[in-house]
TrEMBL record:
Organism of origin: Sphingopyxis alaskensis (strain DSM 13593 / LMG 18877 / RB2256)
EC numbers: 5.3.1.24
Domain N-(5'phosphoribosyl) anthranilate isomerase (PRAI): 9-209
Pathway this chain belongs to: Amino-acid biosynthesis; L-tryptophan biosynthesis; L-tryptophan from chorismate: step 3/5
Protein name, entry field: N-(5'-phosphoribosyl)anthranilate isomerase
NCBIfam families in the record: PRK01222.1-1 (NF002295)
Protein family according to the UniProt entry: Belongs to the TrpF family.
Listed Pfam families: PRAI (PF00697)
Gene name as annotated: trpF
Enzyme class at the top of the EC tree: isomerase
Reactions mediated catalytically: N-(5-phospho-beta-D-ribosyl)anthranilate = 1-(2-carboxyphenylamino)-1-deoxy-D-ribulose 5-phosphate
Alphabetized InterPro entries for the sequence: Aldolase_TIM, PRAI_dom, RibuloseP-bd_barrel, TrpF_fam
GO MF term set: phosphoribosylanthranilate isomerase activity
Keywords: Amino-acid biosynthesis, Aromatic amino acid biosynthesis, Isomerase, Tryptophan biosynthesis
């Protein structure tokens, strides 16, 4: 069954109060803050906490971590207090189970969707992650590269967990991605930027419009 409501939209990699305000004003349901030093969208924990406060109750705020240590994860959770922790590295189900005991936040796990076997292997997160986020397979960086995965891999997949798609989505292709996959949530970062790490308000508006928000 394809969803009939407009998909949820997460605008990820926000780094400034202006971009947080704009994403909320334009109708995003979720925003993402990246705490991962190699990323061009990295924000330190103090900034992440300020942006999280600024967002208030208007959207769900995801904090994105990549293979963070236990100490960093604990610090990040207590400083930022996100609604969601998005794990975008090779975090195991065992580690996610540990984190679930530390926080009331939802746990999302990004999966690099390479082939049909990936869909079988990811079942190990069933009952542990609250949502699976399908993204392009990791390359030099684990995400935020504007690379798409093969959407047809999801065509007849019977989802057993809440899920969404990410990777190379843009205002121009997101409607087709939703039509092909039936995604209930779409997540975008580089596709709504004018330069790496610089969000473009017109592109955010165009993306949300294309999704029907
Ligand atoms: O945004 C980043 O720099 C980033 C770094 C490391 C892991 C994930 C990252 N971003 C997330 O990757 C997907 C896809 O991004 P894009 O739209 O293709 O640029 C999305 O969830 C980003 O939030």
């Amino acid at each position: 069954m394809r969803p009939t409501m407009s998909p949820l939209v997460k605008i990820c990699g926000l780094t400034t109060p202006e971009s947080v305000d704009a994403a909320i004003r334009l109708g995003a349901t979720h925003i993402g803050l990246v705490h991962y030093e190699p990323s061009q969208r990295h924000v330190d924990l103090r900034t992440a906490a300020e942006l999280r406060k600024r967002a208030g109750p208007h959207v769900k705020v995801a904090l994105l971590l990549v293979n963070a240590s236990q100490q960093l994860t604990g610090e990040a959770l207590s400083m930022v207090r996100p609604d969601i922790v998005q794990f975008h590295g090779s975090e195991t189900p065992e580690w996610l189970t540990v984190v679930k005991r530390l926080t009331p936040a939802e746990i999302w796990k990004a999966i690099g969707l390479k082939d049909a076997e990936t869909l079988t292997r990811m079942q190990k997160y069933h009952g542990i992650a609250h949502r699976i986020l399908f993204d392009a397979p990791a390359a030099a960086l684990p995400g935020g590269t504007g690379t798409r995965f093969d959407w047809s891999l999801l065509k007849n997949h019977r989802h057993t967990m809440d899920w969404g798609i990410a990777g190379g989505l843009t205002p121009a292709n997101v409607a087709q991605a939703i039509a092909e996959t039936g995604a209930p949530l779409v997540d975008v970062s580089s596709g709504v930027e004018s330069a790496p790490g610089v969000k473009d308000m017109d592109k955010i508006a165009a993306f949300l419009k294309a999704v029907g928000r």
